[in-house]
Amino acid sequence: MHATLINRNTNERKDVKVGFSWTEFFWGFWPALFRADWKWLIIILLVDVGLGVFSWGGGSLFFNLIFAFFYNKFYANDLLNNGFEPADDTSYNALLAKGYIAPGRKFTNNNYYTSDPQLDQLDKLKDLLDQGAITQEEYDIKKKQILGL
After folding, report:
1. Above 60 in pLDDT, residue 114?
2. What are the backbone dihedrals phi and psi of residue 13, each rounded to the nearest 5 degrees, phi first?
3. For 15, phi and psi rounded to 5 degrees?
4. Looking at the whole model, is its pTM more than 0.85?
């Protein structure tokens, strides 16, 4: 499964895999190198060398097996925290299904989140107040009705 992430500031697109990382399992630190994922490259390399030296490679193999379950998620979350977001609904749903993002997480393109109907009503009501279409008293009354207070 894949997801496409886009940085709307730079228009850079990245295609990320979602789920188990077969490439990390078989090739260790090389996928991080080709992705220019320097943080995880250094971590994987240090752990592989550290475990491999003391266990004749067995510890490195075991680490790569376990880490392959997490690497794609770590990589995608690093991108999401650095300004990338899902490029479309399919990508958003893939990330959501695998737990890469929390339900309801908002991105700049508001098509890609689920929301609470009460919050939507309050947002619209606040817009009306800001536009001067309703008074503060009308806003407060309607807000209490929406919230059930």
Report:
1. no
2. -115, 140
3. -95, 120
4. no
